[in-house]
Amino acid sequence: MFKLHKFSVLLITLVLASPLQASAAEWIIIESNNDIIFEVDISSVKEINKNIFKIWTKQSYPTVQSEKDFSPPIDYDVSKILTAIDCNTNKKAWLMSVYTLDGAVKFSSEASDVKNLKYSEIVPDSYGETYANMVCVLSTKNSVEASKRKTKK
Asked: Considering only 10-14, 85-89, 143-147, which range has the smallest mean pLDDT?
């Protein structure tokens, strides 16, 4: 259900393998349908600890969404989430979120203690599993290739 297109995988691999990465966001669509456009910013993938990577994801909606869990509730059409992925344990932790409506920030928050993040299981067959697999597989591949380059010198 949440499979990457072969072209997207190739593009992501080329960008992550590139030694010079731009600092501007490079959003790649993971899923697009009438209800949501789900994207990942491949330029945001960074190792923050051994085999733990961070990545920004973005969910865009064609209609205004309402988040009732906040007090007061907020309306938004785009949410961006910064997530930490632990490739050793296959778990994720929330780092930051930003909700916007027509480009204006309506709500943002971030983890107050990044050294003691609360990791949770990644739901199988979810968007989270899709981008976690992408990050862990491609980052492992890049680490192996980098090690090979170092040993050749």
From this structure: 10-14
Dihedral sign for Cα atoms in the order 46, 119, 134, 37: negative
Residues with Cβ within 8 Å of residue 96, at least 6 apart in sequence: 81, 82, 108, 109, 110, 111
Kindly list the structural domains of the chain, giving each domain's residue range(s) and its CATH number in brackets, ordered by start: 6-141 (2.40.128)
Which structure tokens are listed for 23? 């600092």
DSSP class of residue 2 equals -
Q: Which of 60, 61, 59, 17 is nearest to 42 (CA)?
A: 17
What is the per-residue pLDDT across 34-83, written as a single tens digit (0 to 9) for each? 999 999 999 999 998 888 999 999 999 999 999 998 888 999 999 999 99
In single-letter form, the type of residue at position 122 comes to I
- What pTM does this model have? 0.75
